[in-house]
Design goal:
Blueprint lengths: L2 E6 L2 E6 H8 L13 H10 L32 H14 L3 H15 L13
Antiparallel strand pairs: 1-2
Helix pairs in contact: 3-4
Amino acid sequence: MILCLTVINNLIATRRIAEITRRLNPNMKKKIPKFKSEDKEREFWATADSTEYIDWEKAKRTVLPNLKPSLKKISLRLPELMIEELKVLANKRDIPYQSLMKMFLAERKAKGDGVGKAKTYISL
C-alpha cells in the first residue's frame, strides 16, 4: 500500500494513493473481465481486490427471496429396517423421512468436530 502524506495547518494527513486517484477521477475503475466458466471467475475473485472493480459506496443492499440452495442428488444404501424406522420417526413428526434424514445430518454437522477428532458422521 502506498501512502501520501499531506501537511495542512501543521496537521499530517495520510491517504492511500488509490483513494486520492479515485477522488480525482471517481469513474476510474477496472473493467471486470469476461469469464469462460464459474470456476475461472471464482479463481479470479479469490485473489482480486473487488474495490478496484466495484464502487461499493454506490452499492445497494438487496434481498433475494426466491434464492434456494443448490441440491445434489445422491444414492445412499441403507438397511431396510433403518429406513422403516426413519419413516416411523418422520411420521411422528409429520415430515417426509428424507427431510428428517437431512435434519439429522445437519444437526450432526452443526455439532462440529473438535481439533484432533476424526470426522465421523455415521457410527456403525
